[in-house]
Amino acid sequence: MVTPIPYQVFVKEVASEFRTRYALNALLMFVVTTLTMVVFSLGDNTVPYEILSGMLWIVIFFSAMSGLSRTFVTEEERGTSLTLRLLTSATNVYIGKFLYNVVLILAMSVFIAFAYRLIIDDFVVRSSSIFWTTIVLGGIGLAAASTILAAIIAKANTKGTLFPVLAFPVLLPLLLTCIRATVLSVEGAFFSEAFKDFQILVSFSVVMIAASVIVFEYVWND
Amino acid sequence: MTPFHLEVRNVRKSFGRKVLFDAVSFDVRLGESFAVTGKNGSGKSTLMKIICGVLTPNGGSVRYVVNDKEIPLSHVAPHIGLVSPYLNMYEEFTGEENLRLFAKIRGIGVRQDDIHGLLQRFGIFEHRNKEARFYSSGMKQRLKYCAALLHRPALLFLDEPTANLDDIGIAVVREVMREQRQRAALVFATNESEDLSFADRVLDLSRLKIG
Amino acid sequence: MNGKMIAGIVIILAALVFGAMTFIESNVEYMDFAKAERVNKKVQVKGRWVSDRETQFNATTSQFVFYMVDDNDKEMRVVLDGGKPNNFEIATEIVAKGRFKDGYFHANEVLTKCPSKYEGDGSAVQKSL
Amino acid sequence: MKTALKSLLVLWLTAVIIAGIAVPMVKSPSGPLEFPVIPGLEEKARNIFFHVPMAWTSVLAFFMALYSGVRYLRSKDQDHDLRSVSAAGLGMMFCILATVTGSVWAKFNWGSFWNWDPRETSIFILLLIYGAYFVLRSAVEDEEKRATLSAVYSIIAGVTVPFFVFVMPRIMSGLHPGSLGDEQGSGPVVQMNMAPNMLVLFFASLAGFTLLYLWMLSLRVRTARLEAVTNTIE
After folding, report:
1. Are residues C50 and C98 in the same domain?
2. Could you give the CA distance from residue B121 to residue B173 in angstroms, rounded to a whole number?
3. DSSP D42
4. Looking at the structure, do residues C64 and C12 belong to the same domain, yes or no?
5. Would you call C5 an interface residue with chain A, using a CB distance cutoff of 8 Å?
6. Extents of the domains making up chain B
7. Model confidence pLDDT, tens digit, residues A151-182
8. Residues 3..32 of D with a Cβ closer than 8 Å to C: which?
9. How would you classify the pairing of strands D35-36 and D25-26?
10. What is the pLDDT of residues B24-67, one digit of tens each?
């Protein structure tokens, strides 16, 4: 009967998203728009796979920014953050929101990855195991950093533009590693060759989550 | 009801360099009722938020002792209920969904009968499957009471208890206040002189010395 | 609260050590020309410039052509997109980055390592960043 | 700091700057007042006396801002926020100076002002972090919130800093001394491959600029405190 509270917060986020479609609609439109722009700008040119790998992560990064920025802003705008604060501890809220962001980002980046490979003929992945491991680990890292940054911007006055500005320096090591691992997957490297990159991705996510759990309550409580 | 003790000591809150109040101290025990009054802007709502642990004071302490054991403010949720204009429901969920959600996130189990009983008592049972955004402000206030009472809290905090309510609503609230005072404890903030008859002690924030 | 903070800091440090382990092992993969011929991907080959064979700059394609030997003394013609790298003559060691292609090594970048005794400019950033 | 110490620091830095620029470089140095010529660098080598202290100071400033931010979160004392923002402001200035001195040097030694060498990338990221820190501060009006949020941001940005060390050299190997793959070792600063008299001047400069930073920091903190008081009186 009694399930962990972070899971309840997660369930609430999912149910709320299905009712309001705050993030999903924005995300879907953003993904479609950026992918279309990529296709048009490529035209008939053959583009090196290094650049194609980079562009994939640019699309994922900015889509994530557009989808996750509202994580805490909606609570703040509708005055429900006080309600949530009254109901449970900051750590429970953080973990629940983080789990929700992980699911959202993973669904989004898997969709983008499929669409990208389908639309762009020059982007041929020879090592699927490396590719999908990168997508999953990169998504978790993105969600980890975005959750705490979304909590920060929810309290600021200019919310929309602030998110990518704050997120970019923090996410750069993650993105560079993801791009590198994606390049390896196109080159058809052995799984073991990408192992060091995965080690960095895992380490980044763990550090980000642990640091967020420590500092989140300072942001969350007024 | 298990014995408990709310201890507020020298609480101070300032915004920037403007001091809202300073050195607020009082105690509330089982079977007591405590009221806070004061002009608009004297910090009644702020004080309520601080005691509920959702706002950090700039100084002083708030302690909850239940059964001779101190409970950290971050874990006080199952013991308290709050009705406040600053506390909003999730508009995309129905009244009943909101109540279930609150119980789950508080980490307590409730029965369907309890939820329906409360909804009936506050006269919004017929509206239980309507999304909260379609509620009038009076209905929202009633829903807040259901949410605050669902887990039978040891301490009930009411910020402007009768706001937005019609006569029938006010009558129910009065009844709730009376009951809560007998069963456990009650803290409320108001400017209505009629409400003050429910208080054992009254703290006037506008007469507080600020230093 | 305090316990949470200590646990968090321990986890952060452990994860950083875990990440740093990738750094301690040498991670710039150098190959020799023999291996570069076999794999069709971008590699970097470390070696020395063969100063007694001709070097030339082709102005029309804007490519710089020279010969280098790798650490196994295999000699190879290297075609670099771009002009002659800085300090090319005094370099004790050079690194060519690129792909093997039709009997020569096509480099898009050549790094030169100068004798770094007394070498200027520094890296305090690297120490703490 | 007492006036005597301050005057001493001014003299010290003047001497460092003059020596850094004016001590001649000769093929075979015969005394402490002659530096060796470094093949491939020549007079450009003098940059080490200015560029490295700037870079070091900006990193030091970042960690001081981070430290004061943590102190603020624990105490909620606005004074720590004043220290944090003062440290970060000066750090940004030194970071820009380090970037400019490095970039000009790169133009004359590597051939371009900017080519995304790992070290150039890392100082660029440091600039970005400082930039984001100040953008965030300007976006929050409430003093307490501003202090809390910027402290939290500096912590979150701070924990990612080690990753740049793991990640950068893997993405690109660099020309900057100390890059991985530099078989000659980690360069002049880490391994001290420097003529003894250059080494003395280098550390004199490092100490001088660090003290200059601390002096400027204390001035800024005091000014900020006075401004805070003035605002209250109004």
Report:
1. yes
2. 10
3. G
4. no
5. yes
6. 4-210
7. 999 988 777 688 888 999 999 999 999 998 99
8. none
9. parallel
10. 899 998 888 999 998 888 889 999 999 988 888 888 899 998 88
pLDDT of residue B31: 87
The region that residue D185 occupies, defined by phi over 0 for left and psi between -120 and 50 for alpha, beta otherwise, is left
Tokens 């953008």 — which residue? D135
Q: Tokens for B8?
A: 């507020």
Average pLDDT over residues C54-64: 83
For chain D, give every domain's residue range: 3-233
Nearest-Cα distance to chain C for A26, in Å, is 34
Is residue C119 pLDDT above 50, yes or no?
no
Q: Number of residue pairs across A and B with CB atoms under 8 Å? A: 75
- Can you identify the CATH homologous superfamily of domain B4-210? P-loop containing nucleotide triphosphate hydrolases (3.40.50.300)
* Band (C120; pLDDT cuts 50, 70, 90): very low
* Whole-angstrom distance, CA of residue D119 vs CA of residue D125: 10
Residues C10 and C54 in one domain: no
The pLDDT value recorded for residue C29 is 59
pLDDT over threshold 90, residue A213? yes
- How much is the ipTM here? 0.81
Q: How many structural domains does chain A have?
A: 1
Count of domains forming chain C? 2
pLDDT score at C114: 60
pLDDT of residue D192: 53
* Residue C25 and residue C39 in one domain: no
| Mean pLDDT calculated for residue range A128-150 | 95
Write out residues 165-184 of D within 8 Å (CB-CB) of C: 165-166, 169-170, 173, 175-178, 180-184
Query: What pLDDT, on a 0 to 100 scale, did the predictor assign at position A135?
Result: 96
Q: Are D156 and A212 in contact (CB under 8 A)?
A: yes
Q: How far is B86 from chain A (nearest CA, A)?
A: 7
Q: With a CB-CB cutoff of 8 Å, which residues 50-89 of chain C face chain D?
A: 86-87
Rounded to whole angstroms, how far apart are CA atoms C77 and C69?
A: 9
Is residue C23 less than 8 Å (CB to CB) from chain D?
yes
How confident is the model at residue A112, as a pLDDT? 94
Give the list of residues 6+ apart from residue A156 with CB closer than 8 angstroms, or none: A162, D136, D139, D140, D149
Residues of B in contact with D81 (CB under 8 A): none
Clarify whether residues C25 and C55 are in a common domain.
no
